[in-house]
Amino acid sequence: MEIEVLKNKVQGLNIVLGALQAATGELCKRCIGLEGAKTKVGKLAKKLGMDLDAASICCEKTKADLQARIDSLSKAAEELQVAEECECQKTAGNCKLGEACFVNAAVDLMKLVQ
Amino acid sequence: MAKARCGRILGEDIYIEEGDTTTLYFINQLRGYQVVLAALKALGQDICHDGCSLPSTVNKVIKRLGKLKNDLEASDVAGEKKKSLLSKIDSFWADANRLPQDTSQTCRKSAGECVIGSGCFATGALNLINQITEPEAPKI
């Protein structure tokens, strides 16, 4: 993977995690939507780390900086506070914003990286 | 009338009476801005800080929060609940005002620094509010 794409994905994941962290202070903390998103972003951070390992980057400092950012994002993903027992908050009758979902939409921000 | 939990904003669980769609509208909007502002705050740590899209989006959020406040003030939401929600709007408004607002800087795409493609994280973050489709805005 090219370094620019890696950088863009790291940038995107940082924003997604910002939004997900806000969601943990919300109804979403007890929602399977957030539980699933936590798994997704954790895997994504792990994959970014593997892509960085496989990338041919001449500058050691650039590589180390990116690795540090990915490690920090991976830690942030792990630390997302999700309740032990989750259920969809729409099904539970608590989330009444319509058919959509903040958490899924936040994860979809990654699709902006082309 | 039975009360139902319908949100958690700034660490406070919010309950409304079943069928109170006016109060629910304002609660849902605040739930949305809580997430949008967090995403914009994360963007502020990135190259977007020195561009024009983030400030433009922040200005939109500030304006919309101002309108939400006016609408809430003019609404028939019950006294104590209205007071509590107004203080949350004020808190979000203050958060938004701490984000970059100078739109005179060059878009990072035009500057050749943002190479994510045709999309824009700032616009995408603001669009998270579009996830809210119910209930309709009350007629004020």
Structure description:
The complex is a heterodimer of chains A (114) and B (140). Helix content of chain A is 62%, strand content 0%. Chain A is mainly alpha-helical and 114 residues long. The longest helix of chain A is centred in the middle third of the chain and has 23 residues, at 32-54. The radius of gyration of chain A is 16 Å and the shape is elongated. With 140 residues, chain B is mainly alpha-helical. Chain B has one domain. Chain B has 4 helices and 2 strands. The radius of gyration of chain B is 17 Å and the shape is elongated. The mean pLDDT of chain B is 95. At the A-B interface, helix 1 and helix 4 of A face strand 1, helix 1 and helix 4 of B.
Radius of gyration of chain B: 17 Å
Q: For the CA atoms, what is the radius of gyration of chain A?
A: 16 Å
The coarse overall form of chain B would be elongated
Strand content of chain B: 5-15%
Strand order of the largest sheet of chain B: 1-2
The tally of structural domains of chain A comes to 1
Distance between the termini of chain B: 24 Å
Task: Pick out its properties.
heterodimer; A: 114 residues; mainly alpha; 4 helices; B: 140 residues; two-stranded antiparallel sheet
Concise account of the structure shown:
With 114 residues, chain A is mostly helical. Chain A has helices at residues 3-24, 32-54, 60-78, 102-108. In chain A, helix 1 (3-24) runs antiparallel to helix 4 and helix 2 packs antiparallel against helix 3.
